[in-house]
Amino acid sequence: MGDGRDREPTVAIIIPVLNEATQVEAGLQALYRYDMLNEVIIVDGGSDDTTGDVVRGFIGQSSEAKSIFRFAVAPRSRALQMNTGALQAQSDVLLFLHVDARLPDSAMDSVRDAIKRGASWGRFDMCLDDDAVIFRVIEWCMNMRSALTGIATGDQAIFVRRDVFRMLDGYASIPLMEDVEFCKRLKWVGPPALICKHVRTSTRRWRQYGIIRTVMLMWFLRLLYWLGVAPKTVARLYPDAR
After folding, report:
1. Which tens digit of pLDDT belongs to each residue from 112-137?
2. What is the reported pLDDT for 3?
3. What are phi and psi of 57, to 5 degrees?
4. Long-range CB contacts for residues 168-175, cutoff 8 Å, separation at least 24
């Protein structure tokens, strides 16, 4: 697409899912409100529940849904699922979104504007869907860490030009920290566009395992990764590792 400034870039939203029958329809419905929604690719990693049926039912409800939403399957691995969606995408820009995350109202315009200004990739700030003060501290720390290091996580809706994604061969096939590893390579291409508008992210992980326990575990896993411990070893300590 050249430098992305010659025309309005198109955006593909890629959503990896696994056993998300209770979450996926709400996530897809939330995307319907965006103008100029180009394509949404939901990639299932072999769910044991009715996730696939829910997605297919959603897509089949109207001709408009069929023209925008697509369903794909891939091996059970967030990295491989996202790579599968990226290979199927036809848009200029790839935006990777968690099924329980909600983009801000002007998300598509923000992404297009960043790409038109010459960014190769970027991310949003994030906020958590709970009013407790502890979550304000957590989200501030996550956003500040990302701003200082140029490293984003999946909670921040990473987006990247499709040609850059393919040049870097996409996400590494590792069971954890695939987003961190990918951002380290993206920084070779250029700094991220930092969109200060907030992706609203679910706190269900913190609720399920305990707030302090989850925070300490995530920092510990990240420390192990930065110390060079193999992602496969780190993943064994993570309860949601795929």
Report:
1. 999 999 999 999 999 999 999 999 99
2. 47
3. -65, -40
4. 170/79, 170/82, 170/83, 170/86, 171/78, 171/79, 171/80, 171/82, 171/83, 172/79, 173/77, 173/79, 173/80, 173/83, 174/79, 174/231, 174/232, 174/235, 175/77, 175/231, 175/232, 175/235, 175/241, 175/242
Residues 6+ apart with CB under 8 A from 212: none
In this prediction the pTM is 0.90
How confident is the model over 43-63, as pLDDT tens digits?
999 999 999 999 999 999 989
Distance linking the first and last C-alpha atoms of the chain: 34
What CATH number was assigned to the domain covering residues 11-209? 3.90.550.10
